[in-house]
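User: I'll paste a sequence; please echo it back and then give the predicted structure.

Assistant: Echoing your sequence first, then the prediction.
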Amino acid sequence: MSAHTPPPDSGARIVFDNVSRFYGEVLGVNRVRLSIPPGITSLVGPNGSGKTTLMNLMCGLIRPNKGTITVNGISTDDPERLFHQVGYCTQVDAFPRGLSGWQFIYSYLLCHGYSPAEAHARAEASLRKLDMLEASERAVAGFSKGMRQRIKLAQAISHDPRVMVLDEPLNGLDPMARAELIALFREWGAEGRHVIVSSHILHEVDEISDQVILLSHGYVVAEGQIQGVRSEVSDQPMQILVRCDRPHVLAARLFEKDHVVEGKLQDDRTLLVRTRDADRFYLNLNDVILESGLQVDTVAPHDEDVNSVYQYLIGEGSTT
């Protein structure tokens, strides 16, 4: 999971091989080596970290100054073949003036070589999938933020791509619409597609991601399943929450161990422990429970989430 590990054989993967991209003297991304498997992958990082640059590179919208990128074995230097693999839902709204939702998708498909009949069928299917068919005759200019988000996503999937690249796709959606889209992302991931999601809604990143890629200042600082990334942060104590009937007794016993850094009583049944060695902590906890007769309700990691890991690795609390 190290950012410096050479990518394995591509296959059905998105592979960045030592990729750098600069905008004049401004760094976009630098020395990126990734091999992204199918499933839901979230890109996490603050503004300027390189998320959008990474997405634009894998869609072939910009080219690297150095290195190569392949998407399911297709080079991003081959835009015609790449189009059939990739659908991109951008964060920025850019709609031709006066166009209806239907025209927005139908004309897009015509421009990419589909016959009128096939473009009609595909436009209808994608609009129905996003529950936008009824509203599609209206001008996009009159759509709400959530509807504009849905129409962009309908366009991105209209040619049935194997790779969906989605930049902040949940912005502007109400909770029910968010839940529906998250279910759709999971469906695509389960079908063996790539779903690349950029998001600053951290609890949603934790909820939907098969893996995360953490970026900072144009560099990939960690990648993999979030629990695995957290376990690699060996120089940062891990926080573990324990709920039991006598947390003060548990705290006194655990403080005898040199790997326990801190313990805080959250309430009369909850103890938050920071330990340098989670494996030893769990072993010691079992011994304490047996010896003291504690009644334990919950033992759970308290910081195996994107925000905590990002703060540990980079020291930045904001990922917006």
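The first helix runs from residue 51 to 58. Residues 14-231 form a domain with the Rossmann fold fold (CATH 3.40.50.300).
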